Amino acid sequence: MRHSIAIVSLVLFVLSMALLLTLAKQAYIPRKEVRDLAKIYLNTTYNPWNKKFTAMSPEGVTAIVWDYRGLDTVFETAVFYLAIIGSIALARGIGKYSKPTSDEKKLGLSLIVKTVTRITTVSIIAVAVSIALHGHLTPGGGFQGGATAAVAPLLILIAFSQYFLLERGVSKDLMLVIRSLGLAGIGLTAIAAYFIGVAMNKYAFVLQNQAKPLSEVSIPAYIDGQLISGTLWFFNISEFFAVMAGFTIVLILLVIPERAFKSSGGEEK
Amino acid sequence: MIDPQIIVLGMAALAALVSVIATYLAILEKNLVRAVVFSAIQSTLYAFLYYVLMAPDIVLVYIPVAVGLYPAVVLILISKTEKEEKV
Q1: In a domain, B38, yes or no
Q2: Intra-chain end-to-end CA distance of chain A, in Å
Q3: pTM higher than 0.95 for the full model?
Q4: Residue B55 resides in a domain
Q5: Coil, strand or helix: which one is A91?
Q6: Which of A4, A130, A220, A251 suits A173 as a labelling partner, its CA being 20 to 30 A distant?
Q7: pLDDT in tens, chain A (269 residues)
Q8: Are B60 and A151 a contacting pair at CB < 8 A?
Q9: Chain B residues with CB within 8 Å of chain A CB
Q10: How far apart are CA A18 and CA A24, in angstroms?
Q11: How many domains would you assign to chain B?
Q12: Given an 8 Å threshold on Cβ–Cβ distance, is A151 in contact with B68?
């Protein structure tokens, strides 16, 4: 009874706030400057006729995230990197633990779940790679693709038990290597224009994508006629691997069987 | 004939309203597993809302994180502690 009264009053509160906002909306009209800002972004995000002011990417969000405000995104990736480092530090000292039984069929969930997981894992990886590789053309990008790909190891860890991945070589250390390679890729892409500028004896910015009036260095926007939007494609691929491996590390650390680990004496590596 | 846009926006408003109720139930629920399910319902409705509000980039990151990873991670953590919340 108390629940339903609370829910009804909550719904009434939300509805009255919605009515208030609807009435207030009629008095407030966005100023013209706001629309001009949107116009600038729409005019410059993909504009091959204005080569000095364009990101050469039809996907506005990816262009803003990795080109217009690229440094912010690099720092976001650094924050994510530090968060994963923190979780690895919390799980330090946990070494190898023995498998309870050698029969793999007894581990994990039932055969139905395992069969469904076998099918869905492949499609999840395919969708994730497509989201990441088309990030500069359609909605999506490196982080979106990486987060989607991380669902696949999660399903395998739960449906097949954590020993399935470890025995096939997908360990925390391998994921750390992949993640570090992804981050190195982001760093190298960020300073790629600078090194091209050094080679051509021209000025260039860090995190530069296409040519600007002050610096004429630009990363090629097309490879063999295919639009890759300069740095955006490389950023997306590197971010995909960094995020996917980062999430997988956290999941592998979370499913460590603490009781089995402690009962076996908790030997350190 | 009703304007299709009105129907879609009405469904979005309904989803927003139901998500508020789901959030309330998730906070009050003492059984932690059921609380995670309520939270996942709220996440699913939010994913629909982001799609209607024309933010496909957010939808693509919200579905794996809030519908896939977050409930699963919290369920793994609950399996390592107790099922009921004690006040």
Answers
A1: yes
A2: 56
A3: no
A4: yes
A5: coil
A6: A130
A7: 778 898 899 889 989 998 898 888 888 777 777 778 888 888 888 888 888 888 888 888 899 999 889 899 999 999 999 999 998 888 876 666 666 666 667 778 889 999 999 999 999 999 999 999 998 898 988 899 999 999 999 999 888 888 888 888 888 889 999 999 999 999 999 998 888 888 888 888 888 888 888 888 888 888 888 888 888 999 999 999 999 999 999 988 888 777 666 666 555 44
A8: no
A9: 13, 16-17, 20-21, 24-25, 28, 56-57, 59-61, 63-65, 68-69, 72-73, 76-77, 80
A10: 10
A11: 1
A12: yes
Q: Which two tokens stand for residue A157?
A: 């860890």
CA distance B20 to chain A (A): 8
Closest chain B residue to A257, measured at CA: B80
Tell me the C-alpha distance between B3 and B6, whole Å: 5
Between CA A250 and CA A114 the distance in angstroms is 22
Residue B85 covered by a domain: no
Inter-residue contact A136 to A228 (CB < 8 Å): yes
The C-alpha torsion from B74 through B78 and B80 to B85, rounded to 10°, is 140
A255 CB within 8 Å of a chain B CB: yes
Compare all CA atoms of chain A with the CA of B64 and give the residue at the minimum distance.
Answer: A148
Nearest residue of B to residue A11, measured between CA atoms: B17
Residue B27 domain-assigned (yes or no): yes
Asked if A196 reaches chain B (Cβ–Cβ under 8 Å), the answer is: no
To the nearest whole angstrom, how far is the Cα of A103 from the nearest Cα of chain B?
Answer: 23
